[in-house]
Structure formats: structure tokens, C-alpha cells
Design brief:
about 25% helix, twelve-stranded mixed β-sheet, globular, 12 strands, about 350 residues, Nitrilase/N-carbamoyl-D-aminoacid amidohydrolase, alpha/beta
Length: about 350
């Protein structure tokens, strides 16, 4: 690219309306409106924002969580759907790019998916979390390399990962190979227990490492935990004490690892903004381009398979209307299109 624009970005710190698809979609659209009204051109949302993170997986066994899983399943996002159309309309009326992480229902299974919308209101692609973390495996299936995109836009090359994907060196290397410049890092909350191995500090550190390693601006977006969510799924005092209010850590991180933009308190619902200049990436690439001049392909390399991996392949045409894979995946009737 020959143009390195300066513009405003935004990272949301907020709570969903837990297990309520319609209400959380409406809240997401309001936040897009607010961020755009304050000048943001690219907007980031937390992990599993629609319709909320399944915190019950850390509070009890599978039997305890089944009733909440059923609610999550019934309130997940399908493509195409009215929910997607509402998100599309929010992008279009505000002329912005935004990335929102949702629980997506595809067939009979759920997946943790970042959806990307452009200023035309098109759903230009999605990223499914490649491997659900620990107890998350009871909720979400796996993604693959076919849904690990970076989008070439007038605001630079945009991409994203979710939560612990930022801890995996091969993920970092794969994203570097696509010359990403602005990165959406979607997180839930930092685990609130004092001394927890993966509290807010560790999550921020992982995102700062990502920014420095790949020389990108990181839009780190996290949820906050609220009394309303606690009342929804905590059934004992022990569970209520486990989940403490707040513990958000949204911020915007420059390629040198420094936080820029306005700060938010850990229990504050709001949006952090920063004005970024993509030209600032160039000096960093002079020093380190891990997928280019600073790589060592003679003895260290990564094979990045971006082909689709499906467990069942249908051979031949049915009597019904034939649709393409892209139409099935992204929903051609929901104002969407696919960029490879």
C-alpha cells in the first residue's frame, strides 16, 4: 500500500445482556453509533460479546451448566439472520468497519466467531477461534485456516484473534505472514482471583507482545462483569464470590507496546479511543519483520494451511436450489460478501 492514513480507532469495554440475543444486538448497535459519532473508523468489541461469555463453565459441572447452554444455543447468531442484518445496518449507517465476537450457530454446533463488517454494511468475513480454551471446549467447536482473514482496506490491513489465541506463537506468525497492520484483540474479562495465572495483567502482556512482534496497532477490547450477570447464572454464594464485578482492561496499544488513548477504570463501561498513524509501523518493520527480512526460513518455517476443513462433505447436487459455499457460510441474502 502506498497510503498510510491517520484516523481514530475505538475499543469497547462493556457487558452484554447475558443470554439475550436481541437486547445484546441492540446494545452493540448503540455502541457502534456512539463510537462512530466520536469519530472512530474501526471499532473493536470483546470476546463472546453476543450474547455473552459462558461463565458457568468455570462455576460447576456440565450438568449444572446445561440449562444455560440451552439458552445460549437459542440466543446464538445464525448467518444469515435478522441479527446479522441489524449489525450490517449499524456499519452501513455509520460508514465504519467493526469487529464483534459472537457465539455462532452453524448446523447443530456452536463456534466462537469474530464477524467483520465494512462501511457498506457487508459482512466481509469471519474468524473462528481455532481451538477453544480448556472448559470452553464444552461450548465451542474449532475453527480452521480458511477463517483466519486479514482484510485489505482503505484503513490498512485489518485482522483479529480472540483471547488465548494471542499466547500461541504459530498464530502470531500466521497473522504476520498476511502483513496485518491493525489488530482486534477480543477478550472476556481478566479472571478476578488474586494471583490468578491469567488475570488482566497477563492478558494485556500477551496483547502487547503481539503488537511488538507483528508491529501492529492492537485494539484490545474486553468485557466487564456485572451484578446483573452474576444474578443470572450464580446460584451459590461461593459462585458469587468467585465472580467479582469489573475486571475489564480495554486499551489501545501502539506497535511499540505502549498504551495510547484514554484510560478506562476496570469496572467502567465505556469506549477507549486513539488517533493512530499507520506510518508509525514503518520504522518498526525496518527493525523487525518476522515474516520477512527478520525471518530464518532456512531452518525455521511455518506451513499455514488455509483450506476449508469440514467433517462431512456432500457430493452431488440436491433437488433444492444450489448455493455456493460462501452463500452457506456468510448468507448472501443478508447483505454480505466474502473477501479471500
Amino acid at each position: 500500500m502506498s497510503n498510510y492514513p491517520k484516523y481514530r480507532v475505538a475499543a469497547v469495554q462493556a457487558s452484554p445482556v447475558l443470554l439475550d440475543l436481541d437486547a445484546t444486538i441492540d446494545k452493540t448497535c448503540r455502541l457502534v453509533d456512539e463510537a462512530a459519532a466520536n469519530g472512530a473508523k474501526v471499532i473493536a468489541f470483546p470476546e463472546a460479546f453476543i450474547p455473552g461469555y459462558p461463565w458457568w463453565i468455570w462455576l460447576g459441572n456440565a450438568d449444572y451448566g446445561m440449562k444455560y447452554y440451552i439458552q445460549l444455543y437459542k440466543n446464538s447468531v445464525e448467518i444469515p439472520s435478522l441479527a446479522v442484518q441489524k449489525l450490517s445496518s449499524a456499519a452501513k449507517r455509520n460508514k465504519v468497519y467493526f469487529c464483534v465476537s459472537v457465539t455462532e450457530k452453524d448446523g447443530g454446533s456452536l463456534y466462537l466467531t469474530q464477524l467483520w463488517f465494512d462501511p457498506n454494511g457487508d459482512l466481509i468475513g469471519k474468524h473462528r477461534k481455532l481451538k477453544a480454551t480448556n472448559a470452553e471446549k464444552t461450548i465451542w467447536g474449532d475453527g480452521d485456516g480458511s477463517m483466519m482473514p486479514v482484510f485489505e482496506t482503505e484503513y490498512g490491513n485489518l485482522g483479529g484473534l480472540q483471547c488465548w489465541e494471542h499466547f500461541l506463537p504459530l498464530n502470531v506468525a500466521a497473522m504476520a505472514s498476511m502483513n496485518e497492520q491493525v489488530h482486534v484483540a477480543s477478550w472476556p474479562i481478566g479472571m478476578p482471583q488474586e494471583g490468578h495465572l491469567f488475570g488482566p495483567e497477563q492478558c494485556v502482556t500477551a496483547t502487547k507482545y503481539y503488537a511488538i512482534s507483528n508491529q501492529v496497532f492492537c485494539l484490545l477490547s474486553s468485557q466487564i462483569w456485572t451484578e446483573e450477570q452474576r444474578d443470572k447464572i450464580c446460584e451459590t454464594e461461593e459462585q458469587r464470590n468467585f465472580m467479582k464485578v469489573g475486571h475489564g482492561f480495554s486499551q489501545i496499544i501502539a506497535p511499540n507496546g505502549m498504551e495510547i488513548g484514554n484510560k478506562l477504570a476496570h469496572d467502567e463501561e465505556g469506549i477507549t479511543y486513539a488517533d493512530i498513524d499507520l506510518e508509525q509501523i514503518i520504522p518498526g518493520k525496518f527493525l523487525i519483520d518476522s515474516a520477512g527480512h527478520y525471518s530464518t526460513p532456512g531452518f525455521l518455517s511455518l506451513s499455514f494451511d488455509r483450506t476449508e476443513k469440514k467433517p462431512i462433505k456432500h457430493i452431488g447436487e440436491s433437488a433444492q436450489e444450489t448455493v455456493t459455499y460462501e452463500e452457506i457460510q456468510y448468507g448472501s441474502k443478508a447483505n454480505v460478501k466474502v473477501h479471500s
